[in-house]
Amino acid sequence: MVRFMMLGGLLALAACGSSGGDNDDPLADYNDDAARAVRIVAETQNLAQTSAASMPVRGRAEYDGVVGLAFGGGPASLEKADIIGDLDLDADFAAGTIRGEMDDFNTRDGRELKGELRVTDGRIDGTGFSGTARGTLAGGAEAPGRVDATVQGGFLGRGADALSGTGIGSSAGGDVSLVFRGQRDRD
Known about the structure:
The chain is α+β, with helices and mostly antiparallel strands. Helices cover 18% and strands 48% of the residues.
């Protein structure tokens, strides 16, 4: 926990020198997203899993957040992600579906990756969800290339205020793991 808090402080300091995402500096964008991940985790870490009684059964919700990717067999953590990007998911509670995209990826060593992962075939089951994340992330020899992963997760807070999830799959660069967290967009 202390390590995560120290990382959060360092990432917040690193982000202070940048002007926000999409500033044509992939390392600054990585640092901005890493700092945003620390903030989102802090804001949602005490939320319990959404209870069946408070799970929405109609309407839609958009979730904005951060996704991290790491190479290797174990689940990634946002703290140890080699690659960080944006998460945009749309839950349709009446239809029991979830879909969206993961994009705007940047690497820890300051490379921008082109492409996106589309979350498709997503099903909401009770207070959880599952689906697939597929796409291509290009940007040099060490880029993942084609990614094919399964994702799963759950809703958090009263009325599904947030969500968190993980994924595991394969890429042209080897096994990948994903971790993501998002908050309900109230705009």
